Amino acid sequence: MVWDAWGIPAGHKPLSAQIRGLLAQVFGVSGDPVARRDEGDVPLRASALTPAQRDGLVEVVGADNVSADHHDRLRHAGGKSTLDLLRRRAEGPQDAPDAIVFPADHEQVLAVLAYCAEHGIAVVPFGGGTSVVGGVDPVRGEFDTVIALDLRRIDGLTEVDPVSGTATLGAGLTGPQAEELLAAQGLSLGHFPQSFEFASIGGFAATRSSGQASAGYGRFDDMVQRLKIATPTGSLELGRAPASAAGPDLRELFVGSEGALGVITEVTLRVHPLPETTAYQAWSFPDFATGAAALRAVVQAGAAPTVLRLSDEAETGLNLARSGDIGGRAVTGCLAITTFEGSAEHVAARSAEATALLTAAGGTALGEQPAREWEHGRFAAPYMRDALLDVGVLCETLETATTWSNIAELKAKVTAALTDSLGAQGTPPLVMCHISHTYPTGASLYFTIVAKQLDDPIAQWQIAKRAVGDAIMSAGGTITHHHAVGADHRPWLPAEVGELGIRVLRAVKRELDPAGILNPGKLI
Amino acid sequence: MVWDAWGIPAGHKPLSAQIRGLLAQVFGVSGDPVARRDEGDVPLRASALTPAQRDGLVEVVGADNVSADHHDRLRHAGGKSTLDLLRRRAEGPQDAPDAIVFPADHEQVLAVLAYCAEHGIAVVPFGGGTSVVGGVDPVRGEFDTVIALDLRRIDGLTEVDPVSGTATLGAGLTGPQAEELLAAQGLSLGHFPQSFEFASIGGFAATRSSGQASAGYGRFDDMVQRLKIATPTGSLELGRAPASAAGPDLRELFVGSEGALGVITEVTLRVHPLPETTAYQAWSFPDFATGAAALRAVVQAGAAPTVLRLSDEAETGLNLARSGDIGGRAVTGCLAITTFEGSAEHVAARSAEATALLTAAGGTALGEQPAREWEHGRFAAPYMRDALLDVGVLCETLETATTWSNIAELKAKVTAALTDSLGAQGTPPLVMCHISHTYPTGASLYFTIVAKQLDDPIAQWQIAKRAVGDAIMSAGGTITHHHAVGADHRPWLPAEVGELGIRVLRAVKRELDPAGILNPGKLI
Predict the structure, then answer these.
(1) Rounded to a whole number, what is the distance in angstroms from the first to the last CA of chain B?
(2) Which helix H or strand E contains B315, and what residues bound it?
(3) Where is this site: Important for enzyme activity (chains A, B) (predicted)?
């Protein structure tokens, strides 16, 4: 990925005249992008890695796999939250890890952790670097030196069991690499979060990622069968069977552990045959409440499509402004997307059941095209954020989840907190929302916020983030449905799991990482 | 429940002439039951509860709710494994908790735990007392005194959210009590393990129970939305949303914690409307491998019925011997049962999809009747075990799970270990097996073992259990799919989660239960 924005250079496109017009009208910004810095000109904090430390790490992974060069350090300087991107765009020196270490396998990860624990070096496990919660910030904690442990070389498909539908994947594989290896065997994982193109298998597990096909294939944590984990204290291999009653499920301690309890090096996942058929169907609902009740009816009946999502009025309107007049007619209300994957018979049966339920709940079928368009553009939104940031517009996302009965209230309170906290700063926002992950008992809410930037957009967003985090907790939501805790959501974790829950997590960390080298400042 | 056998007196029936004939033929036993002891005549170890301890506990829960009487102690003397029942039937004094304490609510549980931690009293959390793995044995550990903490008074339905499909239930409710309270609201939990009639909501959670409708409604751990837990260190309330990425899922530490990490006092569960329709369909497969592949096809296609189970040739044959010539024709091969619940449309669509898949996989439809007969008798097997024990026949069950590709090998190795270890003792067993819980990646295997008792049937079974536990682990199974660890499966937990996994569990226990009073000798 490029150092100061999302993705690859080819993904970055200037804003359309239509959007520039909209921004001028709503926020009064000109739409002329600021110049970006050339990465060679960016001053970096000097590496604190001592020659002895370098020698020690080289002994484990080889000289080619320890890097303290400018290019590598800059690319491991943190994740891709809006705050991260604003910090990269700011003048002045950038912080970065003192070195990047690229281990080849589980044993090398173990050895690196042992070395770092002995020599007091903080370790930030690094997958795709797509964290939007400060999960890979180069925090030193109590140590002088911090390394990023980049897992990209652990990239094998080491075991496939087509009968059971499982595959064992290296933690460093990106989404597309994993799907390509699986497709060669006629299989697919079906995990497509917005970060899919860059994020890694280990990262998906460590952050409890959830993809856009979660209605059909489940969250990433649902897919995990086995985990191999390296810690400063030794290795863990967890998950002996599809289900077990052999005590607490320790996998669930490491799924979501965000590199603070150990380094996930290998994941065995539930996979499925590449689908024979995919059916697409878009829907319109008169309003968000009606649409949400329709999604609920479908998922509670057990008729869930593979993809099931609903945009609110604001998001529906703005997406249409971006994509043109979809399907040749103006869509008002709220757009919903469904897709169905599987055998032709399975798709036909499920689609018929869902169609009947969505129609009965007040939906109007819009045909295939809006659903195909959504799928085509589904990984593009982060590029749009960069284009907005470049023209002085703040753009950020956040997400939560709650029960169906609490969805409307949580949505209203989050929207109010954003509107109030940004409005009070003189920058009233546009707030858009969608439901993208559904469960029998509730759903996620994903918010996109756009506002005019102030002179200090970092402080501007931090004020809003504090207000909205508090609003989420007081309205009964979870502080994060699939972005994880990282550094940014840490203030709310005690409210999420209680002070005693935090003590339990600390007790586990003390046992596995007594020196406290693993990802300081994240999670707990 | 009666003190020395399963269930209620009315459930106990003498063996039929047909079964007595079979037993005489196969094992050479006469079929005349031994006399049982009158409970008043059973000598009990004297209660070690001191007057001061009694006063301390009475202060928390009131005088009516601390009992050291013979009747109560005998009924809390342990669970219902075959070893438990053989020990009850043995001559000599019985061990039992020194007192039973019946707290009214979460706060009283907290206070009892605080008192016991301070005064060095071991605490065995007690739900329905149906453990078959020694999970509620009155083990004192390093303490002089042990109490059973019977949760039956925590029996409320404290919150119902019909929109989200959730209900909050007291840990002490039995299965039928919970279903009755829910049915009054038009709801059902759908959790029907063989222990359903006596086991409790808290026990289901603490042991990762799985019911016979798990294909449709999931395992109990899948149903858990929120948990309220009392520990000697304080309370935990876990689970804020249907799904979350807020770090490790700490619920999964307490689901399956078997009273060793805390006492679950309240559980919020996913529930569903009482089904409009239930469809029944039984199937015959020529052999177990064909039947297993058929079940796999159904569950991997996402067409899972509510109930989906398959008996092997031996179990099919013996069940038919018991029930007569089902459906008016002799069934050879392997019997499978499916049921479908939901709206009429949902049932019709699912049933059609499953029927097509099962037929294509070599199944022959047998109509409704065998499926209805199975449902009618599905809680009766433990009574049959008592009748067998009474005539000098050993009868026990055990269960495991593995991936689909490993099912045949695991089944063969478990059967061989049972046959060899009991055969070597001169008591070759009948071994029956079924699949009762299916997942996309694998399934459970549930074994029923019947053999002639030796003079010391406890030692006889312990030899077999050791052999079969080792066989399960070496063949890649889990030591328990839904019976839990208790005391009986503890020897295999290090192989299941690794020595480092055990250290993690101990670290959590030290944090929450520093005095080590909670359920000594169980789990870890």
Answers:
(1) 28
(2) helix B313-323
(3) 309
Residue A449 pairs in a beta bridge with A396, A431
User: Helices (DSSP H) in A224-312: which residue ranges?
Assistant: 251-254, 288-300
Q: Supply the CATH classification number for the domain B382-481.
A: 3.30.300.330
Query: Is residue A446 annotated as a catalytic residue, yes or no?
Result: yes
Kindly state the tokens that stand for A139: 């925090």
Is B210 annotated as a binding-site member? yes
Residue ranges of domains in chain A: 157-273, 277-378, 382-481
Q: Nearest Cβ partner of B258 from A236, A247, A352?
A: A247
Nearest to B207 by CA among B272, B100, B153, B132: B132
Q: Please report residues of A whose CB lies closer than 8 A to that of B504.
A: 236, 250, 253, 508, 511-512
- Kindly state the helix (H) or strand (E) to which residue B445 belongs, with its residue range: strand B442-452
Distance CA B380, CA B7 (A): 9
DSSP B193-253: -TTTTT-BHHHHHHHT---TTHHHH--HHHHEEEEEEEETTEEEEE--SSS--SSS-THHH
Question: What does the alpha-carbon distance between residue A175 and residue A211 come to, in Å, rounded to a whole number?
Answer: 11
Judge whether B122 and B139 are in contact, CB under 8 Å. Answer: yes
CA distances from B153 to A242, B156, B224, B265 (A): 35, 8, 21, 10
Distance of alpha carbon B458 from the chain centroid: 20
Q: In the block, which residue shows the tokens 């670097």?
A: A129
Residue B87 marked ligand-binding: no
Under 8 Å between Cβ of B169 and B157 = yes
Inter-chain contacts counted by CB atoms under 8 A, chains A and B: 303
Q: How many beta carbons lie within 10 A of that of residue B129, not counting itself?
A: 23
Residue A226: which of A155, A171, A162 has the closest Cα?
A171
**b/e per residue, B427-460, with b = 16+ CB within 10 A?**
bbbbbbbbbbbbbbbbbbbbbbbbbbbbeebeeb
B207 appears as a binding residue in the annotation: yes
Q: What residue has token string 């097997």? A: B381
**Chain A residue numbers touching B255 (CB-CB < 8 A):** 248-249
CATH code that applies to domain A157-273:
3.30.465.10
- Is B219 within 8 Å of B191 (Cβ atoms)? no
**Chain B residue with minimal CA distance to A230?**
B500
How far apart are the CA of A219 and the nearest CA of chain B, in angstroms?
Answer: 9
Provide the shortest C-alpha distance from residue B252 to chain A (in Å): 5
A-chain CB neighbours of B256 within 8 Å are: 245-249
* Residue B158: count of CB within 10 angstroms of its CB: 12
How far away is chain B from the Cα of A228, in angstroms, using its nearest Cα? 11
Per-residue pLDDT of chain B (524 residues; tens, 9 = 90+): 999 999 999 999 889 888 899 899 999 998 888 888 899 999 999 999 999 999 999 999 999 999 999 999 999 999 999 999 999 998 889 999 999 999 999 999 999 999 999 999 999 999 999 999 999 999 999 999 999 999 999 999 999 999 999 999 999 999 999 999 999 999 999 999 999 999 999 999 999 999 999 999 999 999 999 999 999 999 999 999 999 999 999 999 999 999 999 999 999 999 999 999 999 999 999 999 999 999 999 999 998 799 999 999 999 988 765 554 444 445 689 999 999 999 999 999 999 999 999 999 999 999 999 999 999 989 999 999 999 999 999 999 999 999 999 999 999 999 999 999 999 999 999 999 999 999 999 999 999 999 999 999 999 999 999 999 999 999 999 999 999 999 999 999 999 999 999 999 999 999 999 999 999 999 99
The CATH code of domain B277-378 reads: 3.30.70.3450
Rounded Cα gap, residues A160 and A270, in angstroms? 10
Task: Say whether B401 and A243 touch across the interface (CB within 8 A).
Answer: yes
ipTM of this complex > 0.90? yes
